[in-house]
Amino acid sequence: MADDPLSLTFAALADPTRRAILARLAEGEATVNTLAEPFDISLQAVSRHLKVLERAGLITRGREAQRRPCRLDSAPLEQVNEWVDRYRDHWEGRFARLDEELRRLQSSTGGEQSHE
Question: What is the pTM assigned to this prediction?
Answer without folding.
Answer: 0.75
